[in-house]
Amino acid sequence: MKINQFLDHHGIARNPFAEEDAQSDPVFKDYCINDTYHPSWDKIFGDPTEPATSVVFGEKGAGKTAMRLQIVRHVNDFNHNHPGEQLFAIEYDDFNPFIDRFLDRLPHRRRRIDRALATWRLWDHMDAVLSLGVTDLVNRILGGHQVKETIQKVSGLDRHQRRDLLLLAACYDQSTDEPFIARWNRLRRKLNFWTLKAKIPCLTGWFVTLCTVAVAASVFWFDKIAPPAETSSQVEQVEQVGKTIPWWAYLIVIAVGWTPWLWKAASRFLTSYGIVRGMRVITRPTNSLRKVLMHFTSGEIVSQPLPNRERSDDRYELLSKFQSVLNSLGFSGVFVLVDRVDEPHAITGSAELMKALIWPLLDNKFLKHPGVGVKLMLPAELKYFVEREDREFVQRARLDKQNMVPSLAWTGEALYDVANARLRACAADGNQPNISEFFDDSVSHDRLLDGFRSLRVPRHLHKFLYRLLVAHCNAYTDEKPQWKIPKDRFESELALYGREMGDH
Questions:
Q1: C-alpha dist (Å) from residue 281 to 110, 183, 274, 313, 376
Q2: How far is CA 275 from the centre of its chain?
Q3: CB atoms < 10 A from the CB of 199, how many?
Q4: Which range of residues forms the domain containing residue 453?
Q5: Are residues 173 and 200 in the same domain?
Q6: Same domain, 188 and 218
Q7: How far is residue 369's CA from residue 378's CA, in Å, rounded to a whole number?
Q8: Average pLDDT for residues 220-244, to the nearest whole number?
Q9: Which parts of 199-259 are beta strand (E)?
Q10: Quick check: 53 and 403 in contact, CB under 8 A?
Q11: Residue 438: helix, strand or coil by DSSP?
Q12: Cα 72 from Cα 328, distance rounded (Å)
């Protein structure tokens, strides 16, 4: 007996329990994302007009990634209905590139992951978040192929905000779609930003060079032009003057003409070097960054915060500037969605390494930054460390103020609703299947709820129901199908799956 036969008999067009990861689950993303919620959803999502932080602890398969996808969907819906006060969502869920760059910057003796993460700081997280946010914003402004929306309010940015956005892009834009300098110059032209004063050192150098070359040419090659007889004495005087000026004097004049530009280039190089050295999770060629910074005057750079020091103060100022630009573009708040903490290849699911990575982020000043709502979807293993932290951590993190959900637990009734929601999503036209219809009358409704309750999370529910369907269908032939799952099959498969859950 085939599973498709069983499902067709119950009016279901496709298997609703074949997928286990929300990231790649079409049933969830196409149907259930808008009507299947955890009971704590309202507390976690909050009020989009007042972004607030939430800290969620959940075991594997509890729905943390599904909740992140739901938050993104709700943010998009909110933005569609409120074009004047939109939310800007930053998905901070892939730590691999940031950890890899961080390790590459360390000497070989310190690249062991536990030693390396011991030096990970809050400003590294802030650099990563700003990198994701700035890159996304620049994509939208330039009309990137992956972004459907276009920003219509770029012309409303004042000159200071355009400068801030260009400085942010110079430091944090990590797009690989085109060369860094070409992309930055395209953004500069889009923003219509240029400063004549910034070009004066270069123009001065070229002007002095051209004048010096012209004088040298007139002195040394004037005799090749046949002069009139009445001016021969003047020519002799010019040739005599030319013989008294050594060739290296012209080079000195040219060098003096380029001195302002060389001084500016050296200053920008040192600034670029400091930025590149200060950002440990972002790669940027020093000379490319120097070429970009040459477009600014000294006054436009010296007074501005830059990520060139190992401290978070500059990052807070840069984050505020980023928010100011977003506000002028119609974004009233920012959501930072932190997820998949246990998935980086360097961490390999280690609770201690996850703690080393995430603990710097648990800082009340950052989590309560005005206009920013940080949604932390954390593995349940980290709750153990939270309960054993000292008073200093408690005062720094203030998790009591962060809308903390200590356990993303699911009741049997909630999992029952999840199963029915997936059945309805996969139902053939006109059918309203119910999970209880799969089972023999000997499996009572209360027993079904108790069995689902023991599975704890949606992922285990999906795995169990899929395995139960396979086991049931394999026990019967196509000629003698059985359309109801008997109680002994349900109990045996549930006990077997429960033992496997305990082993893991």
A1: 16, 21, 14, 17, 20
A2: 20
A3: 14
A4: 1-38+410-504
A5: no
A6: no
A7: 20
A8: 54
A9: none
A10: yes
A11: helix
A12: 22
Residues in the chain: 504
Task: For 376, list phi and psi in degrees, rounded to 5.
Answer: -100, 115
**306-324 residues labelled b (16+ CB within 10 A) or e (exposed):** bbbeeebebbbebbebbbb
Return phi, psi of residue 55, to 5°.
-120, 115
d(CA 369, CA 320): 9
**Per-residue pLDDT reduced to its tens digit, 405-457:** 998 889 999 999 999 999 998 888 878 889 999 999 999 999 999 999 999 99
Write down the pLDDT at residue 221. Answer: 65
Average pLDDT over residues 70-99: 92
- In tens, the pLDDT along 237-286 reads 555 555 566 777 878 888 888 888 899 999 999 999 999 999 999 999 99
Q: Environment class of residue 215 by beta-carbon count within 10 Å: exposed (0-12), middle (13-18) or buried (19+)?
A: middle
Domain co-membership, 247 together with 184? no
How far apart are the C-alpha atoms of 500 and 504, rounded to whole Å?
6
Residues β-bridged to residue 88: 334
Residues 151, 243, single domain; the answer is no
Portion of the chain with pLDDT greater than 70, in percent: 92
Rounded to whole angstroms, the Cα distance separating 321 from 327 reads 10
For 334-374, what is each residue's pLDDT tens digit? 999 999 999 999 998 899 999 999 999 999 999 999 999 99
Amino acid at 468: L
Q: Assign 3-class secondary structure to 24-69.
A: HCHHHHHCHHHCCCCCCHHHHHCCCCCCCCEEEEECCCCCHHHHHH
Q: Does residue 147 surpass a pLDDT of 80?
A: no
- Specify the number of domains making up the chain: 3
Name the pairing type of β-strands 54-58 and 372-379: parallel
Tokens describing residue 260: 């302002």
